[in-house]
Design goal:
By secondary structure, the protein is of the alpha/beta class. It has twelve helices and 13 strands. The structure holds pyridoxal-5'-phosphate (PLP). Pyridoxal-5'-phosphate (PLP) binds next to helix 3.
Length: 367
């Protein structure tokens, strides 16, 4: 099976030696404290480091009170749902949307309204609990949202008085150009002083280091952090102090930034391999834009002629997997697209996967 389905980094690039050294330093430094339960908000030194980093990156004034560490950004999404959502509440979100977010919020049975970046629906924003966006190399589309659209959304969020969840795991995986300021940074530029804004920003080491550390963070105004901490208490008491201590060693040394620069060119090469092969083999049936960062290519069936829910079985029969678009659509109705991951497999395997996909499509269309 060639899986183009997951959202996983390239395992062969995992920095095992650096993580091993960081683990040794963490244990030497913290001793048994690294192996205990810890404060629910997270390892104090790592909270302070994230606060300092965000302050430097955005030019704002963030303190540890604005930061809570989580078991991956995924837990941040879950806790936000627990704290902010009541049954039937409205969420304004990009469509398609990250499946993990849809899953996290599903128990509250929210109503979704589509976030239209070119003309945000101000009425929807006024009545929603929060807006959710992944502006940098989104999952599943790989799209980089432009600064004009970010600014328009920020203005509307501020006018409507709602929250904006800015989920940002892919920012460092840039292949061409720079993504520019986050929405959080745009907010801070206009609102100097201690952070007290409506943006709930999520970060993680999963895509730039390794997902297995399960270290993510929420940056938000301090009241929200306190509410999220209460919710986290009953979820897992605290995230792993050990992996937070390891992450601290790596982040303090700036290793995540160095490592992102090592993996980005490899991912770019893989993106090119997949897109080039797809141009040769899949373009009669699908169209796509080449992403300038992240992990995914989002393909749309030309003329909606291929139902990707149906194609999926044909693909599995050819030993290749992708993710059909319907799972990312809150209405579940979009079944004419697919997400392909290019980071996990070598260029040769990606080419093989696309070749298999072409065979699956040919069988599907002539069924
Ligand atoms: C948009 C988005 N948010 C959050 C996550 C979850 O990240 P983590 O591994 O930090 O839980 C992912 C992982 O794929 C993602 O794509």
């Amino acid at each position: 099976m060639v899986s183009l389905a997951g959202g996983l980094p390239a395992a062969e690039l995992y920095p095992i030696a650096e993580i091993q050294a960081a683990a040794q330093r963490a244990l030497a430094k913290h001793g048994t404290a690294a192996l205990e339960y810890g404060p629910v908000e997270g390892l104090p030194a790592l909270r302070a480091l994230i606060a300092q980093r965000i302050s430097t990156e955005t030019g704002g004034l963030f303190s540890s009170a604005n930061v809570m560490l989580t078991t991956g950004a995924m837990q941040g999404l879950d806790l936000i749902g627990k704290v902010l959502l009541d049954e039937g509440d409205t969420i304004v979100a990009q469509s398609p949307t990250y499946l993990g977010a849809l899953d996290a919020w599903r128990p509250r049975m929210p109503v979704y309204k589509k976030l239209d970046w070119t003309a945000p629906d101000t009425d929807a924003l006024r009545t929603c609990k929060f807006a959710y966006a992944v502006p940098n190399y989104s999952n599943p589309t790989g799209v980089l949202v432009g600064q004009v659209c970010r600014s328009a959304l920020l203005n509307d969020v501020l006018e409507s008085g709602t929250w904006l969840v800015e989920d940002d795991p892919y920012r460092s995986l840039q292949f061409e150009g720079d993504p520019g300021p986050t929405i959080l940074e745009r907010y801070v530029a206009e609102h100097p002083g201690p952070y007290n804004g409506p943006i709930i920003y999520l970060g993680t080491v999963s895509k730039t280091l390794v997902p297995g550390l399960r270290v993510g963070w929420i940056v938000a105004e301090s009241n929200i952090i306190q509410a999220l901490a209460l919710a986290k208490m009953s979820t897992d008491l605290s995230s792993s102090m050990f992996t937070q201590a390891v992450a601290f060693e790596l982040l303090e040394a700036g290793f995540d930034k160095v490592h992102a620069q090592t993996i980005a060119p490899v991912y770019r090469e893989r993106r090119d391999a997949l897109c080039h092969e797809a141009a040769l083999r899949l373009s009669p049936w699908f169209e796509w834009e080449i992403p300038v960062g992240g992990m995914f290519v989002w393909m749309r069936a030309k003329g909606n002629a291929i139902n990707t829910d149906e194609l999926y079985q044909f693909a599995l029969d050819e030993n290749v997997a992708f993710v059909p678009s319907s799972v990312f659509d809150f209405s579940g109705e979009d079944c004419f697209g697919m997400r392909l991951n290019f980071t996990r497999n070598s260029p040769a395997l990606l080419r093989e996967g696309i070749e298999r996909l072409e065979r699956a499509i040919r069988k599907y269309v002539s069924r």
